[in-house]
Design a protein that fits this description.
The structure is a single chain. Helix 7 crosses helix 8 and helix 11 crosses helix 12. This protein folds into three domains: 189 residues, HUPs (Rossmann fold); 104 residues, Glutamyl-tRNA Synthetase, Domain 3 (Glutamyl-tRNA Synthetase, domain 3, Alpha-Beta Complex); 92 residues, Beta Barrel (Ribosomal Protein L25, Chain P). It is an alpha/beta fold. The chain has 13 helices and 27 strands. It has a seven-stranded mixed sheet, with no helix packed on it. The protein has a seven-stranded mixed sheet with strand order 21-18-19-20-14-17-22. Strands 4-5-6-7 form a four-stranded antiparallel sheet. The chain binds adenosine-5'-triphosphate and magnesium ion (2 copies). The site of adenosine-5'-triphosphate has 15 residues, from helix 1 and strand 8. It comes from Australozyma saopauloensis.
């Protein structure tokens, strides 16, 4: 490519991890297998990988599978695949559930040390007590009583066990509410996707993470900073159990305008049938954005350019799509499409009586992309919008062909229904004002469906008290028909092209005899069309 600067996004955060020694750093990415990987997770995963790599240490991929009600093997498998797609392969893949026995023993130790108690206070009362800083009526249960409830009732998921949970006895009045005796074990009778019905109770995130981080040899736990209040709790658990200390390093969550990143909410869209599935092109999942035409390189560049920012940022989608455009533009083959709605037939009086084929480069600046067949004929199609701009007697340029003189414009009301014209190939294309796309109107052209999408929600940034269901975009999928050049027949699912003067598209359904070819619009970072 002539003089085009190739963008290099070299990761250079110029940030050190505290107490980090080259060769000894161990980080972990701990997804819960309760949904597909989304671009927020991708940020966490790439940051963990970055530090592990930078310090010549190790990365653990840990499935944080402590809530059987939400977790599935399907999600687990998809997470591994999507991480691989992003070029992330952990040195080890582990599961929180591998440590259920050890965590159980450690919970017993806390109880025996008088540092945890079983509590059957109703949920709402408990929440209220934690809010105002009141002690639970069960806080002073004896060690014996706690042991009995924990090992006989909770462990077996009895009726009495189900009423109870285990709480760390930290400080019910602490200004930091995270320290007000957090719940560390609770019952759940749903079979676990790995341990089946062996357990009837499970550690909570708050107990599991500091314990497993320590046991697994993690040196630096990267957490999004909405957990900052819970850092003292994390340390309390390690200290109280005499476990090895782990340094916490926090970073800002990434959010996107008009986008939900909560797996629970995304699951709602799937369950309601408002999207196809987790890989829907309107979803911010790794699969969704890939299907929409995001390249892995574009995604990685975006995340690395964000660096380890501590601010919770609400990103514009245009930023990430603009980065993607830089990747696809130099390599996307150029093709031609004409909107089928009101496409205008231009009859060229002196055009070739029999269609003529010529080989032309698919990309003017990149010969490596190869050639395509361009057909020239005496009947061609142009977009209604272009046709409507022509004047009788005007000389215009048909791109990659030459000049054309418009003789007669046939109209029905404001709609152009046909044009009589003639080629004027000696004409100078530098002197015409209009350069238009055209397509030979022969049986070789193919009909395709073009699909564009809008965001699923209408509000840029949902506030804490907003119910996302009140902000659903009524229509999020826009289909139109177009005629396209015959070369599209060889494209495969996922191939990215540009329709000249229209934009970038990714092939969803390839050409076949039995169904219409479908292409999705790839946003290119310019203001979204509403
Ligand atoms: P969700 O609310 O969608 O369930 P989560 O944070 O509970 O998200 P996990 O599977 O527990 O999902 O997350 C795995 C890792 O990804 C965690 O370390 C979490 O902090 C990180 N993460 C999740 N969402 C984001 C985000 N929007 N930006 C940055 N990191 C994120
Ligand atoms: Mg989580
Ligand atoms: Mg969450």
């Amino acid at each position: 490519a002539k003089g085009e600067k190739k963008e290099t996004h070299k990761a250079n955060f110029a940030i050190d991890l505290p107490n980090a020694k080259v060769g000894e750093v161990v980080t972990r990415f701990p997804p819960e297998p309760s949904g597909y990987l989304h671009i927020g997770h991708a940020k966490a995963a790439i940051l963990n990988e970055y530090f592990a790599h930078e310090y010549k240490g190790k990365l653990i991929i840990r499935f944080d599978d402590t809530n059987p009600s939400k977790e599935k093997v399907e999600f687990q498998d998809s997470i591994i695949e999507d991480l691989a797609l992003l070029g992330i392969k952990g040195d080890r893949v582990t599961f929180s559930s591998d440590y259920f026995d050890q965590m159980y023993e450690l919970a017993l130790k806390l109880i025996k040390d008088g540092k945890a108690y079983c509590d059957d206070t109703p949920l709402l009362t408990m929440r209220e007590e934690r809010m105002v800083g009141d002690a639970s009526a069960r806080r002073e249960r004896s060690v014996e009583e706690n042991l009995k409830i924990f090992t006989e009732e909770m462990k077996n998921g009895t009726e009495e066990g189900l009423k109870n949970c285990l709480r760390a006895k930290i400080d019910y009045q602490n200004p930091n509410k995270a320290l007000r005796d957090p719940v560390i074990y609770r019952c759940n009778l749903t079979p676990h996707h790995r341990t089946g019905t062996q357990w009837k109770m499970y550690p909570t995130y708050d107990f599991c993470v500091p314990v497993v981080d320590s046991i697994e040899g993690v040196t630096h736990a990267l957490r999004t900073n909405e957990y900052r209040d819970r850092n003292p709790q994390y340390e309390w658990i390690q200290n109280s159990l005499g476990l090895r200390h782990v340094d916490i390093w926090d970073f800002g969550r990434v959010n996107f305008m008009r986008t939900l990143l909560s797996k629970r909410k995304l699951q709602w869209f799937v369950d309601k049938g408002l999207v196809g599935n987790w890989d829907d092109p309107r979803f911010p999942t790794v699969r969704g954005v890939r299907r929409r035409g995001m390249t892995v390189e574009g995604l990685r560049n975006f995340i690395i350019s964000q660096g380890p920012s501590k601010n919770i940022i609400n990103m514009e989608w245009s930023t990430i799509w603009a980065m993607n455009k830089k990747i696809i533009d130099p390599v996307a083959p150029r093709h031609t499409a004409v909107d089928a709605a009101n496409a205008v037939v231009v009859s060229l009086a002196n055009g070739p009586a029999q269609p003529e084929a010529e080989q032309k480069p698919k990309h003017k600046k990149n010969a490596e992309i190869g050639n395509k067949t361009v057909l020239f004929a005496n009947s061609v199609l142009v977009d209604q919008a272009d046709a409507a701009s022509f004047l009788e007697g005007e000389e215009v340029t048909f791109m990659d062909w030459g000049n054309v003189i418009i003789d007669k414009i046939h109209k029905s009301g404001d709609v152009v229904t046909g044009i009589d014209a003639r080629l004027h190939l000696e004409g100078d294309f530098r002197k015409t004002e209009k350069k238009v796309t055209w397509l030979a109107n022969t049986d070789d052209k193919i009909k395709v469906q073009l699909v564009d999408f809008d965001h699923l929600i209408t509000k840029d940034k949902l506030e804490e008290n907003d119910n996302f269901e009140d902000f659903l975009t009524p229509e999020t999928e826009f289909k139109s028909e177009a005629f396209a050049d015959l070369n599209l027949k060889t494209l495969k699912h996922g191939d990215i092209i540009q329709f000249e003067r229209k934009g970038y598209y990714v092939v969803e359904k390839p050409y076949s005899d039995s169904q219409e070819m479908v292409l999705y619009t790839i946003p290119d970072g310019k203001a979204a069309k509403k």
